[in-house]
Amino acid sequence: FSFVKLEDDRIGLRxxxxxxxxxxxxxxxxxxxxxxxxxxxxxxxxxxxxxxxGFGLKRKCMKWLEEWQKLPYTSPYVDASHLDxxxxxxxxxxxGVFHELLHLT
Length: 105
What we know:
Layout: E1 2-5, E2 11-14, H1 26-38, H2 59-69, H3 88-102
Antiparallel strand pairs: 1-2
């Protein structure tokens, strides 16, 4: 990394070297393991979700969640500037960013 001066007199970081082999999210790693054994679709990865016993999610909400899980997965490590921030696909990417942050070790 190196320090750079931003337009508004703040200081930012610039990445000097990018290794694409390291830019694989936790969700993608898990999907790759499953692909080898099950042949899953890596384009629309689903987040693991578990509800506590007795948690009642309305059918309408559950249906929306199932459809949302089928949306394309955009890795937190790729440029997503082409995504409209008002779309569900963009929201899924944001969830992916938080998911990745929670799995950093």
